[in-house]
Write a structure and sequence with these properties.
alpha/beta; six-stranded mixed beta sheet; five-stranded antiparallel beta sheet; 22 helices; flat
């Protein structure tokens, strides 16, 4: 890639920003060395890695690379047989710990998503628990080896500790002795040259038995080792030498283990460096709300809602910019500081970032082409050192670009032809653009020349664009409008700033009629473009809202279907349980009967049945007494279908559905229950009933006939509200005609939507007298009990 363009488009700043997210020095090096690629397969892999890292980071947070340091020099020294220091071995132990954390981070914990590229990296990380555990066991800190690193070291340090205690005890005896009290400068034990000493006054140099190791700055105090502890101190010195030898052996053994695992450690080093770099790209993407652009080799770019990543995200205005499909050359015009240069840089920087495997801050689906090079001539190129004017410097750069450019390149010119005579500059700019246009090279140019606006309007494949400017506020909106040329707005800005009207009118006289008409046409085009853009944005909002509502309806439908399936499954399980229980009870009864038959104890069975019958009669009599009903009542005579009766054993009013049969039993409807009742347990119900309107008087005989086929409950579970209400409406009509006074509507609990819809409907039905939620034992809130008129 063109080095000058990388700097001009501020690609280097983006790379430095990327390096800031890397943890290890090695990953930072990779980031700073990142260059755009021109290979489609390489770009696709790098983009896939970034996308997978973003997804993984969002799902389970970022992996921890804390403690990841450069260990390649240590590995090289260990490979050559060198002995690593305590701190170097500790770094390798920390590196192994980072490897283990990374491996645990990538563990599959029942996740549904897969990360083909990253999973491959994590899978290749080798754990070396033997080396990690040994280093952890032996190394305590960067300067200390653990006592338990070896039995020999533990024994030596134990001896050193005992010897130190002996020396201290002996010295404590000296400093507390009255014989030496006057000789000592202070009653403390100190260490000089790794030997225990006591501070002695200088005048007792020859009197105090001992060796001098040091003296104070004033010379008044001598630090002397008493002769009585010289042997003990010598022993401590010997033990310390042994300790160093033992530690050296331990370090040598650990270094040998590092050498044996050098290949795995080096491979892990490369893998973790790559993962650190990839997750740095993911952090950069998340920080700027980036997306993965779609790449192709067809040479066109379509950036939607692109935001320059180096501008303040709270202030930057998203722009739509496209190039290379309907037209290959884009001419951007408009006032200064209106956003023309930002649009150019956004186009160029996004192309470089995308080809480097980085996400771009834009909206989906943004598309980028693969360019073999990106050339840019942007900014003030004046050079005092090289005696180049602004125009000369720009032209030198343009000449170099025209020599190196190919039909697969992207060219960006800012203020092409500026810095010289406007007429010649416009002609030169037109010729350069024409040269690139004839070669089908993708080109974007900013300009103030009206001649270039006319050229774009009259040339197919060249398109005008402008950066919108609000004349009322004298501020640019920074929105890029492709399809119309921009105005300079010099007169409007000058008037807004207070320039006298007569001067502005005088200036307008110097503009030709055709030029004035051209500016008016531009104004009309800009107004039309704004209107069209506004309508397009509204249409897009409506489309998104429609899609959202559609998805919501589909989710509700799926949720309802799931609830229906759950209810059916539960009902099947309950039915199966009831069936199993009934079957077990039936089997038990059959076995009992068979057992009694085999034992030929029929008389006993008869006696048991008599006892049961007597018990039932006793219960019935108690019930009748409690309800103050005489057991000597007279059974109804000439009972007809439809007669209202009182069932003594159930303490319920009902309707006779049949005449007494040969067993003197009558089918009676009691609310939602039908049962055959002995005639002796019935009484005629003489309670006066309210007179029904004529339109509702139906033959009770017809009702009784229909009631034999009508259930006292309806199950609406799993149905939509409209579907359930239609079924309930028909059912209530049938129940009313059948003479049922109480019915039960089973709607389930669920979300409560079906229950609310049913109860709302019941308030408007003419046949409904009242309704209430089910009580305990009736189905609770899962049913509604309805009383019919």
């Amino acid at each position: 890639m063109n080095e000058k363009a990388l700097h001009t488009l501020e690609y280097d700043k983006m790379i430095q920003k990327l390096a800031g997210y890397a943890v290890s020095p090695m990953a930072k090096e990779l980031a700073l060395a990142l260059m755009p690629s021109i290979s489609m397969s390489e770009i696709a892999l790098q983009q896939q890695e970034t996308t997978e890292a973003v997804s993984m980071a969002l799902r389970k947070g970022n992996p921890s690379f804390g403690g990841f340091r450069e260990i390649r020099p240590q590995l090289k020294r260990a490979e050559m047989g060198g002995c690593l220091s305590v701190s170097e071995l500790l770094y390798i132990g920390e590196f192994l710990y980072v490897c283990r954390k990374a491996k645990n981070y990538a563990k599959n914990e029942g996740k549904e998503e897969s990360y083909p590229r990253l999973d491959e990296y994590f899978a290749l990380i080798s754990l070396i628990p033997e080396l990690e555990n040994e280093i952890t066991r032996c190394i305590v800190s960067e300067t200390e080896v653990a006592d338990d690193a070896s039995p020999g070291l533990r024994s030596i340090r134990k001896e050193i500790k005992v010897s130190n205690e002996r020396v201290k005890d002996h010295l404590n005896g000296i400093i507390s002795s009255s014989a030496y009290r006057n000789m000592l400068q202070d009653f403390v034990i100190t260490i000089r040259n790794d030997r225990y000493c006591v501070p002695v006054k200088s005048e007792y140099r020859s009197t105090f038995p001992g060796m001098i190791h040091d003296q104070s700055n004033t010379g008044s105090t001598l630090f002397m080792e008493p002769l009585s502890v010289v042997q003990l101190n010598n022993k401590i010195k010997e033990l310390q030498a042994k300790e160093k030898e033992e530690i050296q052996k331990i370090l040598q053994n650990l270094s040998l283990m590092v050498m044996q695992n050098e290949a795995q450690l080096a491979a892990n080093m490369e893998l973790l460096t790559q993962l650190d770099f990839i997750f740095a790209k993911a952090q950069l993407s998340l920080s700027m709300d980036g997306i993965q652009p779609m790449f192709h080799t067809k040479g066109y770019v379509n950036i939607r809602k692109g935001r320059h990543p180096l501008l303040d995200p709270k202030k930057v205005v998203p722009i739509d910019i496209y190039l290379g499909k309907e037209f290959t050359t884009l001419l951007i015009t408009g006032p200064n500081t209106g956003g023309k240069t930002v649009a150019l840089k956004t186009l160029g920087l996004f192309s470089l970032m995308g080809q480097a495997g980085l996400h771009i801050p834009a909206s989906e689906p943004s598309q980028l082409a693969i360019f073999d090079n990106v050339f840019a001539d942007i900014g003030d190129e004046q050079s005092i050192e090289q005696s180049l004017s602004t125009f000369s410097a720009h032209m030198t750069n343009i000449v170099r670009i025209l020599e190196d450019v190919t039909d697969q390149s992207l060219v960006l010119f800012d203020e092409l032809g500026a810095g010289t005579d406007p007429t010649e500059g416009a002609a030169l700019a037109t010729a350069i653009i024409q040269s690139l246009y004839e070669r089908k090279i993708r080109t974007a140019v900013t300009t103030h020349y009206s001649e270039l606006k006319v050229y774009a309007l009259s040339t197919e494949g060249v398109e005008n664009a402008c950066c919108e400017f609000d004349v009322e506020t004298l501020r640019p909106t920074y929105r890029l409008l492709i399809g119309i040329p921009g105005k300079s707005n010099a007169f409007a800005i000058s008037k807004r700033l207070g320039l006298q009207d007569y001067i502005i009118e005088s200036a307008k006289e110097f503009i030709s009629h055709d030029e004035a008409r051209f500016e008016d046409v531009i104004t009309d085009l800009e107004i039309s473009k704004k209107s069209v853009t506004y309508e397009q944005e509204r249409a897009e909002q409506y489309r998104k809202e429609a899609e959202r509502l559609k998805l919501e309806v589909e989710r509700q439908k799926e949720k309802t279907q799931e609830q229906k399936e759950k209810i059916l499954k539960k009902a099947r399980e309950e039915a199966k349980q009831i069936y199993t229980q009934a079957k077990e009870e039936a089997d038990s009864i059959i076995k009992e009967m068979n057992r009694e038959a085999k034992q030929k104890n029929q008389q006993k069975a008869i006696e048991q049945r008599a006892k049961i019958k007597q018990k039932l009669s006793s219960v019935q009599e108690d019930f009748l007494k409690s309800n103050k009903v005489k057991t000597t009542h007279k059974a109804p005579e000439n009972l007809q279908v439809g007669d209202r009766v009182y069932v003594i054993s159930f303490d319920q009013n009902g309707v006779a559905l049949s005449v007494p049969d040969k067993n003197k039993e009558v089918m009676v409807q009691m609310g939602m229950m039908k049962a055959k009742i002995p005639l002796a347990e019935l009484m005629l119900d003489d309670t006066p009933q309210p007179k029904e309107p004529k339109q509702r008087q139906v033959s009770m005989r017809q009702k009784s006939k229909k009631s034999q086929f009508i259930s006292a409950e309806i199950d609406c579970r799993g149905q939509l509200v409209d579907e359930a209400i239609a079924n309930i409406d028909k059912y209530i009509d049938d129940a009313y005609l059948s003479g049922l006074k109480q019915i039960i509507i089973i709607h389930g609990k669920g979300t409560g939507a079906l229950r609310a819809g049913v109860q709302q409907y019941l308030r408007t039905n003419a046949h409904v007298k009242s309704h209430r939620p089910g009580a305990f034992g009736e189905g609770d809130a899962g049913v509604t009990v309805v009383e019919l008129k």
